[in-house]
Design brief:
about 350 residues; alpha/beta; Dihydrodipicolinate Reductase, domain 2; about 25% helix; binds 6-O-phosphono-beta-D-glucopyranose
Length: about 350
Amino acid sequence: MLNEAGLVERSRIIMEKPFGTDLASAVTLNGKLHQVFSEEQIFRIDHFLGKEPAQNILAFRFANGLFEPIWNRNFIDHVQIDVPETLGLGTRAGFYEQTGAFRDMVVTHLFQILAFMAMEPPTALEPRPISEEKNKVFRSMLAIDPINVVRGQYAGYRSETGVDPESDTETFIALKCAIDNWRWAGVPFYLRTGKRLAEGQRIISIAFREPPKSMFPVGSGVGAQGPDHLTFDLADASKMSLSFYGKRPGPGMRLDKLSLQFAMHDTGLIGDVLEAYERLILDAMRGDHTLFTTAEGIERLWEVSAELLESPPPVRFYEPGSWGPKAIHQLVAPHAWRLPFERAWRDPNKTKS
Ligand code: BG6
């Protein structure tokens, strides 16, 4: 219709997800779009990439010499991307019933963030080189094995207005995936998200390998609170934190988990932060594709998801306000949800205290 109305030439279109619901529908959708629009005219929004802290991942990684040398399998034990939400369905039952947490959050937002974390340095901070590197990450991703996935549904979901009383839609998902390339082979990436959980957060954490040997006395506390972590909080008022062991003051050698923290709030620049959609719509108007996803990237993500979509594991119930299906999700995401910076880390089995 846009074509018939003569609205295609010199125009750009911004698309919201879903970009298909599986590989076949994504290929069909992209085919139809390309009959009318060239890829350069299409801007597929993933609003997580428009968040200021997501772009800060690129700045942090590629504008500094400090961390890039250790950003690989030799030094990193695992990576977690955790996006618990307290929100329920609201009035979106029609959309959500067809979608579920995997399609709504993982195929779109969490995989895109994963690509920023895992990609090689682009040759330039420009759309094509960045897309190239992101797509290389997606090409190196191994197909997701349903054995590495836990799906959950909060108790009461099936009685919400517009939801099928026998719905199999997941409102929670935890999965382990792998990027099988030279930088990341053997490093598990744990992705978790869900609705009606105990707290709302958007946290990426990188756990570094522990020292090979410890000379600290037994009971000193070294290693007692997990490995050192570098953590990014994707809230608009973004934060970063690096946790490490340090000496507790006083006699003897007792160790505590300490941290170095950066909070955007402290810079006085928080007022300059653009809301994700403001930033992305502005970029689309300027014709800048840097933070938008490509047809190729989307299709590859559906490809690695095919087996899971065909044979999803059964949904397991969880209480609203909890941390998801009891203990079971630790099988595929064995580490605690990493939450607010002030509280170091928390047992995922304990509900909000
Ligand atoms: C949307 C999803 O894309 O992102 C929602 O459809 C989700 O289900 C939302 O709640 C989360 O975005 P944000 O920016 O609020 O973390």
